[in-house]
Design a protein that fits this description.
Two copies of one chain form a homodimer. By secondary structure, the first copy, chain A, is an alpha/beta fold. Chain A is built from ten helices and ten strands.
Chain lengths: 286, 286
Amino acid sequence: MHTTVSSATKTVTIGPDQPFCIIGERINPTGRKIFQEQLRAGDMSAVEKDVLDQVAMGATMLDVNMGAPLVDEAELLAKAVTMIQELTDLPLCIDSSVVEALEAGLDAYKGKALVNSITAEDERMELILPLVKRHGAAIIALPNDEFEIPEEPERRLELTKYIVEQATGKYGIPIEDIVIDPLAMPIGADSQMVVRTLKTIELIRDTFDLNMTLGASNVSFGMPDRHALNSVFIPMAMKAGLTSAIMDARTEKIVTAVRAADLMMGNDEWGATWIALHRAKEAAKA
Amino acid sequence: MHTTVSSATKTVTIGPDQPFCIIGERINPTGRKIFQEQLRAGDMSAVEKDVLDQVAMGATMLDVNMGAPLVDEAELLAKAVTMIQELTDLPLCIDSSVVEALEAGLDAYKGKALVNSITAEDERMELILPLVKRHGAAIIALPNDEFEIPEEPERRLELTKYIVEQATGKYGIPIEDIVIDPLAMPIGADSQMVVRTLKTIELIRDTFDLNMTLGASNVSFGMPDRHALNSVFIPMAMKAGLTSAIMDARTEKIVTAVRAADLMMGNDEWGATWIALHRAKEAAKA
């Protein structure tokens, strides 16, 4: 299945026959104290740097999250969206747990955004999906509900089915505009955590052929040599059927691993992108 | 399924619930002119270095191939096997296209070797499998015959079925001692090459639950930045069901990727091996 998103001037297609959709995770104040302070002071200079860094490394889209304590998140998200769209033509993923912020971000956005996110909770779908529908956006959906983040892949598949039924049937969202987040959690907490995520990805691919994205950096949380883990996890998830990730788009090792995996998946004909990437690196060295 | 191989004092288990079996590819004169000249002059010093390098990097087994022009391969393979078994307790993979060399190598070997290789060709099975049976060895089998190296995964599965029937039925080889090589060829020749290999691996896993190995470095032949490609291909193949590879065991990036993939596959409980590997690297730096 193909999901398209766009900025004012550029369309990106997400799908199993496309190069992997790298959604840069960086524009997010979570865990970044200095950035949080800057945002409270109205200083958006870090956002500009984050945009340019991620664009330079070849991100396909950028996630934008402005959730920090003591800020007007809605106002800030609208401001960030406007500013980022002046800096780059990459489509954006508008990311907030606050409905008013999503609305402000969508109002400011030019194009077809990806919205992050809903869950299988009726209340959250009821608040967010009409907004998504009105803006003609695409939506990331997590297969958890108010009771649990299920461990079992089969239960995650059931919740995915519920989301798809509700979003398409009740809210009129086209099925191709639903992108499932199969839930990636730290491997350090449980050795079977990634096995379950990979199994969930395969089940959703085989059952619904939906596009999927996830927060890839979560997997290595708390472990040493995180870049090495992330750059192996994403290709394995791509093999299972993952078509996108909200991920570290600033670390060459990880981005290179994704482009290598594109080649392995048959999505880089004659290795044209791979060879061009290599030449660009050689040129940068010289 | 579990395949066991052993040296005089050490047993290795290959299987989907085990850490990946890294078979060091280095002891092979193919494409190494200086090594070929040394072998012709009776100089085995390079073998010693290759053994120690691969052991130091954490190889699980070592492949031994002595096929060079103008050498007595049988004599040389027996000599190499004896010498290597004095240097390391890792089990060996005895690798030759010459039946007499395999026989000499097996005669010299102490333990249960892995023999590389047979195909679905009746003549080759008839020459080699009685030898494998007599020595109680395990065997690598390639699903190609005298007519073709099939492109289609389904045809490779058919040839695998034929090999399994012949080897178990006619020659009395236990099924767990058959390790299939699903055939990995250069991605540069055809963008769908790895897709076919990965599909073959999944089919063989799902149909027979057999262990599999392949020459992993082939995949990146002719492409730039081969280490980056190899270190992504192997984890993707592990996700598909590959349990071993004859591979570059001297490049840290590639070996690290395999151990990261072990962790992702749930075969490194609590990340104990991963964390120990990290600490060893930190200690080596300090």
